[in-house]
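Intended use. Records like the one below are meant for learning the mapping from a protein sequence to its folded structure. Do not use them to infer anything beyond what is encoded.
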Amino acid sequence: MMLNQNINDSIGNDIARLRLTAGLKQSAIAESLKIDASRVSRIETGEVIPELEEVQQLAKAIGSPEAMDYARYAAEHWNVIPKPPFWHPSRLALRKAEQTLTELANFLEKHNPDGYAKAQFEMHRESLLKSTSYLESLFHSIAFVGDIGVGKSTAICAGSDLLVEPDKTAKKTAPKAVLETGGGGTTLCEVHIHSETVDVYGLIVQPNSETEVFRLVNDFCAALVDRHNGLTEGVRGVSQEVNRAIRNMAGLVRPQGKGETKTSPPDPAMELVKQCEGNLPEVAAEVLARIKLGLRTQCEFRFQESDRQAGLKKLQQIFAEVNRGQRADVSLPRRIDLIVPFPLLGKRSHQLRIVDTKGVDGTAIRPDIRAHLDDSRTLTVLCSRYNDAPCTTMQGLLEHLVNTGAENIISERVAMLVLPRQNEALAMKDDSGMNADTIEEGYRLKREQAGSKMAQFKDGDKVPILFFNSMDDDRSGLSKSLIEGVQKMRNGQVERISQVYSAVRELIKSLGETKSKAAHTEVIRRLKQFVNKQCKLPERTQKPHQRLIEALQLLHPRTVWATTRRNGTWSGLDVYHFLGVGTATDAQARSQTIFSGLDGVLADMSNDEQLAPAVEFVSELRKNVSSWRETFLSEATTVGRELFRARLFEHEHLWTTCADFWGDGPGFRNAVANELRLWCEDSKQADLLETVEKRVITLWDEAFVEPLRKLCA
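Structure written out for the chain above:
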């Protein structure tokens, strides 16, 4: 008999792995089966493809429980979802999903149920397909988020063993991180780290567009001109790391001071401004000419190196040169990918990508950070300093998630990482005012303190609080905790499959029984009553631009100026993201009473003994309602963001007016906030607000009301 479904590509490797794990030689297998040892060899190398009977004989000869399991696996038929590899960590859960989907399809074909049963079967099928799709992929990301200078880059490198040991001839020093680290303001952009081919190291640059490079250079030059004109406060400009990169790219590096007094020599960039008599366009043109952007086309570096330390050291050097703008062939990066030839966080069955996000400067309500949080495959690690954990910025981010109805993200795929420095844990005091005796005691006390702050947010008490001192703590502990976070996300999907499996079996078993039919009919009646009376979305209660105006008044003036120069699309302050968040916040406030009311109805039905035959259905419905709510609010964010962008981005006069407020004295941020508020509240935008409202109501009907009506049909 031929093997079921094409596993021919892996059968040889599988048999070899099973044999080696059992500690057997090829000759022992051959002797047991009374075949030539060369046939076992040819099977394992893939030269010969055995039929099912021979695979089962080989497995029996190996004799281990794992080998016998493989024999059963080889004979399995998978009809609905693709057959995963034997070594897939979620294979058993996927098998249960496959069996349930097959049973479900066969039942529907044979009995063709109508009414509530058919709608329930379809709901269960969609839930299973969603979970299987999640588990089939082994790719996951771990994204670190934190304030500038919090120490996340150092923690990433220490926890992932991306460290370059000092030369043996050098004085005793600590290992150096592959990423550039410092007191903050060091890394230019988001960095992704992942594994690829054996012995191959690499660095890939995703450059900024030419337009963005022109803008950054202009911003850099604007700061120089402001200084030239005698301004000391409210200076325009770019971040510290971008300033450094542009100086290196343009050959305008400030020389170090000499002598005991370290007198600062003239700044070549300021000398250039003097030559141009403070004319901003002329200064910017000269800096761009020096950068020679047309020659900066190199985007990828790859090299082979069998020695791990040598490979990391070279990767460290290339990264530093790219990040500092010191390579004449590389433009200003928008994102950098680092490739290493070894598994991150140790040998795991998952394919991991570690993301070092751009340090937070003012607000973590950014589209790049929210994208990581919204990604169901990403564990987001919120980093805080020890003394103020969880810091104000991370608390603001948690509040943002709750306000936009995304508290499930907090409970399912967020971890808090506290980064203590030397002796901070030992300085922690207990209730009696005594210092902690040990670092572990200091961590325990801080965990209790931080936990009380986290508990203020819905589901915040479910967030694991981790500690890691990159100088002293065991790196394996952090790796283990992060992997546990990833596994927790996967376990949630495994549990969903088991829950749906039970619900389907119970529905099939009870279908047609009088009590079951009566219970389901009553559940549907109550649901229909709720839909007819309480499912209309209330009127808007919050203005979509409310959050934006608040942010404009609080963030650094330079950040506000940068976004006005880019028609609202600056990474540090994306106007349209805030408008989308405002739309979702309002949608969350308006729908919360309805969702809470429905959950109360479902909870009451779960506890009603007369409805016991339908309890599995009610339980599954509660979980699906949570998913519908998440979809509705996520789509509301997108609708608000894109509809406002379509009109506001093209309003050149408005953005020019806002940018021109700079230099009119104090109050720049308030002036911009007021201008955007007036635009949003102008009667000319009434049709835009009406369009946003119509789309939100449509989303509400599609994501929530219609699925409920379908169940009640």
